[in-house]
Each structure stands twice: as structure tokens, then as C-alpha cells.
Amino acid sequence: MKLTFWGAARQVTGSMYLLELEDDYRILIDCGFDMDRERGKEDDLPQAFPGSVFPFDASTINLVLLTHAHIDHSGNIPNLYREGYEGQVLCTSPTIDLTHLLLTDSAMLHRRKLHNLAKKKKKSQMPPPNVVNEWYIEKQVDAAMDNFVGIAFQQRFQIKKGLYVTFIPAGHLLGAANILIEVVQNGKYRSILFSGDIGRYNYPLLPDPANVPQVDYLICESTYGGRYHTPNLEVEAELEKAIIETCIEKPGRLIIPSFSVGRTQSLLYTFNKLAIQQRLPPIKVFSDSPMALQSTKIYSRYSKMLNEDARQFIETHDTLFDFDNLVIVEDLKNSKAISNYREPCIIISSSGMLEGGRIQHHIRHNLSNPYCTILMIGYSAENTLGRQLLDGISSLRIGDQQIPVLAKVKYTDAFSGHGDQNDLINFVKQQAPERLKQLFLVHGELESMEAFHAILKAEGYLNVAMPEKGQTFVLD
Ligand SMILES: [Zn+2]
Known about the structure:
This protein is an alpha/beta fold. The protein is built from 15 helices and 22 strands. The strands form four sheets. The chain has a seven-stranded mixed beta sheet. β20, α15 and β21 form a beta-alpha-beta unit.
């Protein structure tokens, strides 16, 4: 059996791994969008299939397994179908709904880019063809979604004789899984665990990551392999502190850039808890993202799959996300009208890295306002506007405007959806080092991986690889 690392190899995005069994049955685990390529990083792979998005023939894949909905894990699935894949995508039911939402959003973005591209005349303004090839539109998303099949957590599901998959709850995002693959071929049993993204313990709404069994091969994410979250941070206390400092003491407006899917629901739930405990001052909280509204509906629909705390909360209060003073902003006109609202308030809007979406006009209007605080709550990739703000830049270029930064910029990791180095080590430590044939680190920048690698070595995990893109390993 062979495993090839076609993405998230020494980088965070583009998760895609190809597992080829002895009988040539081919399974693709995740099929994510490579944001590094999108941002112009050179792709140095030989183009075996000119014009193709993939370095392999999509029509030869037999099955796709999807760990969770995030676009860096799911974003290229429509392209797989465009290029001839005819099989199914197996994932949990919430992952189907969230993936549909995220892929449709990507398709709308692609449509806009294609429209702009048609207007460009100069060759120098064109993005490279490998980037343009990745742009799909809504009807291609719908065609792909017809082939998604939902399977339950913790059920050992037989794909065919000698091939079983089990989806194990990973925390991180509603429906997110670690995927266990068990193969019996030529009388030999082998187990391989793909981590997906590993969530945190005691995270708002989500169940803790479940325990995983001993396996022969482990493929482990390492986003925060080199970092610790601030210990003992309580999300409610963190949020309350920011609200009091900004909206009561100054008083001004608090802007929270937030991913619409997952992160915003955790925030709204935390606001709701503060409201119930009468710790939320009587100010308006604007939730300004159409996609967040859709995602909130999906979280409500699957409330039985949320953690014990959330299930009890809904039993007592009948709602997870709805509280007095919450204003759901649906259309763009009302979104823009928020800048005319003069009272202290809270604005939650996307995108989390400030790279697009309605957050941009809120930032544009408030960046030079010393009475405003921008609270960053998530990871911002290099070269994004979010990262520049976090790095303390004194003026920010948004579109054709250069805006001085007079607002206060703060960061909290209380809402981060990824486990830190401790969580990752504890995840790996469920494996006895002498029984683990090999451990592969993926989904991390090289620096994080190396830090994680060093700790793993000290813990007795000696056979650890950090595969390069396109590297193949024989799993015997
Ligand atoms: Zn993720």
C-alpha cells in the first residue's frame, strides 16, 4: 500500500493525501484548496497532467473521504468531479451541510474573479493558469454535492471486503472527524489514522476530541506544533473584559473579525451566556454576515451533536444564539448603515483575516477611530491584512485607500479552534511509540513542524517524517 502527500505538506493549506491499496483501489483523503498557491507561491511540481488542477488523473480515484468542511480540506472537490471523478464523498452529515455552504461561497467568489478576468486586457495582470483552472461556479458545486454521503460518527463502515472506515469526533468544527482506515489485504491487517484538524478541550459548543485507537500509521496535523495557547483563558471572561474596556470605559465600538462558519457561532453562544448571566451591557451586538446566519442555522439543526454544556443550555433557554440586543444584519444596505450608528456597540463580521467580505467596510470606517477596538480572535496567514494589523502596522492599505491605524488592535487566542502543542502531543501520546510504524507530520509551517518533531523525539517517537509535496511512502 502506498501513501502520497499531495497537499498540506510543509504548509498549512491544501490537505490532500492519496492512499493506494494493493489491488489499486485509490482513496483520496481530503481535497482542499491550496491558499498558498492562490497567494502566488510557486508550484514547482512537474505538470504530469497539463491543464489539470491535480497531479493525478481524477477519474482513477475510487473514493473520497472528507475530514471536515473547512475550505483548505474540501475546496477542490468540485474540481475533482469536473476532471472526471465519479465516486462518492463520505463525511458526517453536518460536514455535508457546512461544505455546501462554504463551497457555494467559494463559487460566488470565483464567479466574481472570472468576471473581472474577462475585463483584463494585459497579460501581466492575469493570474497564473493553474490558479484560474481552480475556479468553479455554483452549478459545479451542486453537481459535486449530489455525491456526498453522510455517515455517523464512531460507526465502523465497510467500504468493500477488507476495507473499513470510522469517523472519530475531532472537535474543531461541527462534524469534524479524524478518519480511521483499516485495511486487510493478503492476510495482513493495517490501520491508518488521518487526524483532520485537532480541536481543543472545553471549546464553546463543540465536544472534546474523542480518543483514538492504536494504529500502525498516523498522519497528524501540526498547525500549532510550535505554540502554546495562553493557559486557563476563559472565553466568557475574555470577551467580557474586551466589552467593558471598549464599550463601557472608553466608550466606543468593538469590532470582531470572525470566520462565519464555526467561530461566529462560538462567539454568539458566548455572548448569549453572558447575556443570561447579566454580564452583557445593554448595547447592540451586530452579527453582520449572511454566511454566518446560514451556518448558525446548521449549528442549531445539529444541536444534538454539540457538547453537553450546549445541549443543557438549549434545554433550559430554548435557544443557543438568540439574545436581546442581537441584531442579525442580512442585506448590505443595513450593513453599511451600521457606520451611522453612534452608540457604543459590537460588530461581528467576516472574513476573519480581513481579506474580503463586509468586515472591510467596517475596518475602513473605524481604523482611524481611537474609540474603536479591533479584537482579532483567529489565525491570520502571512501577508493578509489581519496579519499586518497584528504586526502593529501604523497604516493599512485597503483597496486604494491608505488608512492610519488609530484604533486599538487586540488579540486573544481564547477562541482559536486548533489544539496547541500540548493538545497535539496528548493526541499523539495515545499511540505507543514502539507499536507505531510511522508518524507523518502535515498541515503546519515548517518551523511549527520542526518544533513539534523535536518534542516528539524526546517523547520516544523516533520514526517521524515531514513529507514534502508529492512524496510517496510505502506502508507495508
Ligand atoms: Zn479546519
